TrEMBL record:
InterPro entries: Thiolase, Thiolase-like, Thiolase_C_2. Coiled coil: none annotated. Keywords: Transferase. Residues 243-391 form the Thiolase C-terminal domain. It comes from Streptomyces melanosporofaciens. One of its GO terms (molecular function) is acyltransferase activity, transferring groups other than amino-acyl groups. The keyword Transcription regulation does not apply. This is Acetyl-CoA acetyltransferase. PANTHER family: ACETYL-COA C-ACETYLTRANSFERASE, NON-SPECIFIC LIPID-TRANSFER PROTEIN-LIKE 2.
């Protein structure tokens, strides 16, 4: 294949899977990685010998080398980018570029975590901050936790644009409605705005139900060059465009608490895909906190800046709403074992394939969705990765 032809290669997601998720007390993170990887390969129908690229983060001293060894892989192309929750969208962008350029045939992205089980078993404790070295040393002594940083940003949005607690709470309510259609979601019982508002305070204005759940789980995504698509078991979902961006580490360097780096990553992804936000049928957005969903909707262009509160209300984000968002229930209700960004891609692919079961989104006339966006956020709005996917 000539260099020009290699650069022109299209890239598809050909396999996706979840490991066991939710409450998994007897498995190691390595076992969840392996389970997800095997299931994704089986989902693709391709032989493991095709896989010559591997991407992983968050486990081992030499990630992804240790995980690849555990899986019995010897990849020629690797990626260990670690930028929090947006890691997997950023890795998808890297992997798609590598495949298109001929540096790899097929790249496997895998994640697994037993964050919940480890705390219950005393193998680890909850962390108040990411560290006390480098720039963070100037914030940590004052008790500025990760959740407090998100809470500060939410309060700024409320001050700037009149966003209300009820509007933020309604995002959690709609996530739970979506989770109610997902048999694999960790929490499925309906909740109300009053339930959210009356819960225990975590960091003002966030009560417990404004915050993501803690779970165990893993997942995997396999991307491959277009010449392998005829051999796959499922219809391809094409990577149409992607974008990445970083913003800040210390809060004092964040220019505007009401703007996330998704404003840049989304703009690039939509432009490269040749689509507009109004074309999107399904949105899978990182939602460690309700405010993340709201501000990402604004920054991706689904509504104007400051209008996220009214836009997200009235059921617009549910399976049957105008913009079905976090259709599996998201990190607020379904599963959040840590760096959740890869779960967004799995759900987006399943929706485009028509494999989402009770929670399947349909367009007018019962048609399947054609375009989806997955947008991950890392740190405390420190980084973002956005990927636009299309049905073949």
């Amino acid at each position: 294949m000539s260099p020009a032809a290699q650069r022109a290669r299209k890239v598809a997601v050909v396999g996706v899977s979840l490991s066991d998720c939710g409450r998994v007390d007897t498995a190691t993170p390595y076992a969840l990685h392996a389970q997800a990887a095997r299931r994704a390969l089986a989902d693709s129908g391709l032989d493991r010998s095709v896989v010559d690229g591997f991407a992983s983060a968050g486990l081992g001293t030499l990630a992804p080398v240790e995980v690849a060894e555990y899986l019995g892989l010897r990849p020629a192309w690797t990626d260990s980018t670690a930028v929090g929750g947006s890691t997997w969208e950023v890795m998808t962008a890297h992997a798609a570029d590598a495949i298109a350029a001929g540096h790899a045939r097929a790249v496997l992205l895998v994640y697994g975590s037993t964050a919940r089980a480890d705390i219950r078993a005393g193998r680890r404790t909850a962390n108040l901050s990411f560290g006390a070295r480098g720039p963070l040393q100037f914030e940590v002594p004052y008790g500025h936790t990760l959740v407090a940083k998100y809470a500060m940003a939410a309060r700024r949005h409320m001050h700037e644009y009149g966003t209300t607690l009820e509007q933020l709470a309604d995002i959690a309510v709609q996530a739970r409605i979506n989770a109610g259609h997902n048999p694999d979601a960790m929490f499925r019982e309906p909740i109300t705005v009053d339930d959210v508002l009356s819960g225990p305070m975590i960091a003002d204005p966030f009560t417990k139900l404004h915050c993501c759940i803690r779970s165990d789980g893993g997942c995997a995504v396999l991307l491959a060059a277009e010449e392998y698509v005829p051999d796959t078991a499922k219809p391809p979902v094409w990577v149409l465009g992607s974008g990445t961006a970083v913003s800040h580490t210390t809060m004092s360097e964040w220019d505007d608490f009401t703007v996330s780096p998704a404003a840049a990553s989304g703009r690039a992804a939509f432009a490269r895909a040749g689509v507009r936000p109004s074309d999107i049928d399904v949105a899978e957005l990182y939602d460690a906190f309700t405010y993340m969903t709201l501000v990402t909707l604004e920054d991706l262009g689904f509504c104007a800046k400051g209008e996220g509160g009214p836009f997200a209300a009235k059921g617009r984000l549910t399976r049957d709403g105008e913009l079905p968002t976090n259709t599996d229930g998201g990190g607020l209700s379904a599963c959040h074992p840590g760096m959740r960004g890869l779960f967004l891609l799995v759900e987006a692919v399943r929706q485009l394939r028509g494999e989402a079961g009770e929670r399947q989104v349909h367009k007018a006339g019962g048609r399947l969705p054609e375009l989806a966006v997955a947008s991950g956020t890392g740190g405390w709005f420190c980084s973002a990765g956005t990927v636009v996917l299309g049905r073949g």
